[in-house]
Amino acid sequence: MWLNLWMRISSLVAAFLVASITPALAHQPVAITDAHTSAKAGPIMVDGTVSFAMRVNFTKANQERGFRISLEEDELLNFEYLIIDRTPENRLATSKLPVVTITAPDGTKQVIKLNERSKFYEPYGRTNYLFLSRFSQTAKAGIYEFSIKSKGRAGITVSTGSKEVRGEIYQPKQCPVVEPTSPVVITNAQAATLVGMKKQSAISCVQSLNGITRIAQEDGESFALTRDYRTERVDLYISKGVITKVSVG
C-alpha cells in the first residue's frame, strides 16, 4: 500500500514539475473589428516578435480588415493562416477564402499563398484548426501592414510572432501614453499611431512624447528636408489635413 501511495505521489510531483517548466503555448488575442477597415486603420503590435492571434470575420465579399506590427532589422517575421476545422469554414474552397497581403516597410507587397491543409489542435481553446499557410522570414526595420480582403462570408484566424510573453498594442489614431526617455526616441510603432489623425492632433501627440515634427509633404507639395537622422523626429505626410504617412528620423 505504501509503495503504491509513494508511486502516486511521485507521479504527481513529476507532472507538476513538467508543467512548471513547460512554456505556455498560447497566442495573445487581438480583436479585429469592423472599424479596422484597412491595415492603416488597424491596431499596431508594438513588438512584432510577440505571439498575437487575430480572429477576422467577414459577412460578404469585398470587405477589408487590417492590422500592423513593428519589427526591428533582422528580427523574424512569423506568420500563420488558419481556419477552424468545422463547417462551414472547413468546407470553403481555397479560392473562396480571404486574401492576405503583407506590405513591408519598403513598400514590397507579398500575397499569401494557401499551400497546405494540416490539422492542428489548440489545447487552451480546445479547438481544432487547419493550417493553410505559415512561414518565417527575416524582417526589415519598420511597420509591416497586413491587409485581409474577403471573397464572401468567411471567418479566419491569422497569427504573428513567436514569443509567448505579454505584448503591448497601440490603437490607431490614439496617442500612446509612454514614459519619456533620455535621449528621446520616437519608435516606429508610436509614429504609426499618427496615421489618420488630423494634422494638429498629430503634432500635439509627438510634442507630448517630447519629440518634434516636420512636414515632408502636404497636399501634393513636397518640401526639402535635411538628411541628418534624429531619433526624436517624425516626418509627416499630409492630405487634406489628415496624416497619410509617417517616417521616423
Tell me what the structure shows.
The model is unreliable at 1-25 (pLDDT under 50). The protein is 14% helix and 40% strand. The strands form three sheets. Strands 1-3-11-5-9-8 form a six-stranded mixed β-sheet, with no helix packed on it. A six-stranded mixed β-sheet has the order 7-6-10-4-2-12. A four-stranded mixed β-sheet has the order 14-13-15-16. It is mostly beta strands. A hairpin with a 5-residue loop joins strand 6 and strand 7. It folds into two domains: 28-169, Sandwich (Jelly Rolls); 188-248, Trypsin Inhibitor V, Chain A.
Question: What's the short version?
Answer:
The chain has 249 residues and is mainly beta. 14% of the residues lie in helices and 40% in strands.
Work out the count of structural domains.
2
Helix amount: 10-25%
Q: What is the correct CATH architecture of the largest domain? A: Sandwich
What can be said about the biggest beta sheet? 6 strands, mixed
Question: What is the N-to-C succession of helices and strands?
Answer: HEEEEEEEEEEEEHHEEEE
CATH class wording of the largest domain: Mainly Beta
The largest sheet has its strands arranged as: 1-3-11-5-9-8
Structural class: mainly beta
Please tell me how large the radius of gyration is: 22 Å
